[in-house]
């Protein structure tokens, strides 16, 4: 099923309406997980989103889109 089929009676979010929401990415393109910005330097996400074999510098955080 397409991802949209799992949301019933939902609404599209307006751009920039969730400024604390982040996309944790591997590199510039590959979305791994969502998370929440909890300060100007810290993000909280699920532990299964972080892989021990990846260099921390290989992650990218996209905020508030």
Automatic annotation (TrEMBL):
GO molecular function list: serine-type endopeptidase activity
Keyword Manganese: no
Signal peptide feature range: none
Domain Peptidase S1: 7-65
InterPro entries: Peptidase_S1_PA (IPR009003), Peptidase_S1_PA_chymotrypsin (IPR043504), Trypsin_dom (IPR001254), TRYPSIN_HIS (IPR018114)
Keywords: Disulfide bond
Record bears the keyword Transmembrane: no
An example Gene Ontology biological process: proteolysis
Protein name: Peptidase S1 domain-containing protein
Annotated source species: Nematostella vectensis
Taxonomic path: Eukaryota, Metazoa, Cnidaria, Anthozoa, Hexacorallia
């Amino acid at each position: 099923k397409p991802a949209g089929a799992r949301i019933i009676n939902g609404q599209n979010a307006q751009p920039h309406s969730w400024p604390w929401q982040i996309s944790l990415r591997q590199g510039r393109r590959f979305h791994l997980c969502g998370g929440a910005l909890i300060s100007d330097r810290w993000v909280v996400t699920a532990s299964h989103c972080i892989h021990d074999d990846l260099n921390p510098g290989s992650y990218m955080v996209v905020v508030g889109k």
